[in-house]
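$ ./design --mode recover --in tokens.txt
reading tokens...
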């Protein structure tokens, strides 16, 4: 398609989600080969400002890959600046890409640090157990 060609002319690589997600190692390698993730959220998460955040985006962060994702309210709790950028408008997407490209190493380090701080299994499990009173 013309749209696909336009992305590819600008150094984007588009991959079938079914092909890269059928095996753990294919998925792992796909994320490792990626420079960053750009993604949108389902309409209800955006409209209701639920704070929803993608587990796939958490994998990108853990791999030290910056993420630009649609604002769902998650920035009330984490992210929004370095490593994990949110957007509501097309202009904010372009601005996020420029910020990441201007200092990729900084955003990569911040992505990894955020994943450890917020999504690491020990951190999440402790929070769940604390809330359960265990």
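writing sequence...
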């Amino acid at each position: 398609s013309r749209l696909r060609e336009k992305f590819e002319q600008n150094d984007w690589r588009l991959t079938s989600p079914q092909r890269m997600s059928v095996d753990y190692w294919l998925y792992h390698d796909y994320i490792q080969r990626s420079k960053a993730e750009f993604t949108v959220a389902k309409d209800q998460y955006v409209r209701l400002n639920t704070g929803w955040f993608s587990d796939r985006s958490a994998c990108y962060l853990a791999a030290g890959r910056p993420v630009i994702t649609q604002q769902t309210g998650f920035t009330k709790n984490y992210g929004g600046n370095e490593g994990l950028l949110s957007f509501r408008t097309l202009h904010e997407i372009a601005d996020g890409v420029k910020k990441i490209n201007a200092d990729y190493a900084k955003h990569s380090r911040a992505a990894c640090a955020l994943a450890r701080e917020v999504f690491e299994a020990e951190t999440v499990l402790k929070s769940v157990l604390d809330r359960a009173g265990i």
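exit 0
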